[in-house]
Write a structure and sequence with these properties.
The protein is built from 10 helices and 22 strands. By secondary structure, it is α/β, with parallel strands linked by helices.
Length: 394
């Protein structure tokens, strides 16, 4: 009997995990099912480009997984019963229930309104493709001189504000950051961000908390009114609510708590990867929500599952960082080198070379997802019945 592996979500992490599992295990021994609501793989790290009118290459999941042995189910996940080991989905065939022996939870995150009044009604977001397309339509309708305010001083906010300002130099673009501009970067990194903001004419409201969003302005904590024909909200991410609705142990952020092998600490037949996981990295610090964290966690989970099913040594790996890659429009970029536990080092790469580096990283990540059977030596190991039974009864 085949060991049933279900992967929920086909973003960078879920797509990577499904492809890597297909390369590690024999088709005769496992049935790998990938469930995703959209038919295409979405390059989330390029949503700010999509929002400014750039067209991205379509990557149909049906083409990506053709011939790999991965069964694609286009459906929305509506529930997970970790005691019965079932997943409820709704797709073209209506409501269905899928049974699993091993579950890989990769439903990721969406935008986080931070419960700020008016955000849900008036702000735009780029955490998902639908949100990015909605912002794209709204930006295209703006007349010259109108104001766009990006809220959130993290990497997404920096990328969104510079992309919009470069694509629409006729608009008045501003960024409202809760801290200093680029305050998690090194001094050289912060200096370069300020230089690019100056060149693009972006106004930076530093140490500014937004407490309300209206259709034509935002309000700050100290009562200031900042005009905003469009407000783009990038102030953090919220975990998909489904995780909290299960009996899985979750953190205060709603992330599934996992051990060093990405395995749920409460349900050993469930693995969580990417933004959905509360995983510890180098220095025993939680991994931040990012593609830089997500893909390594997906690779690790896939290798661990394959090892446990085939009776091989389980990988012992600590995930760490090397750099932060930031696009500042199409012509400028910043590569901030960091320690393994994500603290900024003095060294940076700036300018066009950094922009090219970031573009290469984005293309490489998309290529690895779009070519699941290429790039890594294929080693289809046999699943032993003994290991399957052990996995099912732990």
């Amino acid at each position: 009997m085949q060991h049933r592996i279900i992967v929920l979500g086909a973003g960078y992490t879920g797509a990577s995990a499904a492809g890597r599992l297909a390369k590690r295990l024999r088709r005769e021994d496992v049935a790998i099912t990938l469930v995703n609501a959209e038919p295409d793989f979405v390059e989330r790290v390029r949503n700010h480009q999509l929002a400014t009118g750039q067209d991205l290459r379509p990557r149909p999941l049906s083409e990506i997984y053709a011939g790999t042995g991965v069964e694609l189910r286009l459906a929305k996940v509506t529930g997970v019963d970790v005691d019965r080991k079932t997943v409820a989905i709704t797709g073209a065939n209506g409501a269905e229930e899928l049974k699993y022996d091993t579950l890989v939870y990769a439903l990721g995150s969406g935008w986080n309104s931070q419960a700020v009044p008016g955000t849900a009604e008036h702000a735009y977001q780029i955490a998902g493709r639908t949100g990015a397309l909605g912002l794209r339509e709204r930006l295209a309708s703006l007349d010259a001189g109108q104001t766009v305010v990006v809220v959130g001083g993290g990497l997404t906010g920096l990328e969104a504000s510079t992309e919009i300002a470069e694509a629409r130099p006729d608009l008045d673009v501003a960024l409202a950051a809760g801290g200093g501009l680029g305050d998690r970067l090194s001094p050289k990194g912060r200096e370069h961000v300020r230089k690019v903001f100056g060149k693009l004419g972006i106004t930076a409201y530093e140490h500014t908390a937004i407490t309300a969003v209206e259709a034509d302005h935002v309000t700050t904590a100290d009562g200031r009114i900042i005009p905003a024909a469009v407000t783009v909200w990038t102030a953090g991410f919220a975990i998909h609510p489904l995780a909290k609705a299960t009996f899985l142990e979750v953190s205060g952020t709603g992330q599934i708590v996992v051990d060093r092998t990405m395995r749920s600490v409460s349900h050993p037949d469930v693995y969580a990867v990417g933004d959905a996981a509360m995983a510890m990295g180098a220095g025993d610090k939680p991994l931040r929500m990012s593609c830089a964290s997500g893909i390594p966690t997906a690779w690790l989970a896939a290798d661990v599952i394959a090892a446990r099913l085939t009776g091989r040594k389980v990988p012992d790996k600590t995930i760490g960082y090397f750099n932060q890659c930031i696009s500042l429009g199409r012509k400028e970029g910043l590569i901030q080198y960091v320690t393994a536990d994500d603290r900024a080092k003095p060294m940076v790469l700036r300018g066009r070379l950094a922009a090219a580096y970031k573009e290469l990283i984005c293309k490489s990540a998309a290529w690895s997802v779009a070519n699941p059977t290429l790039g890594m030596p294929t080693r289809h190991h046999r699943v032993t019945r003994q290991q399957t039974l052990k996995q099912e009864t732990v």
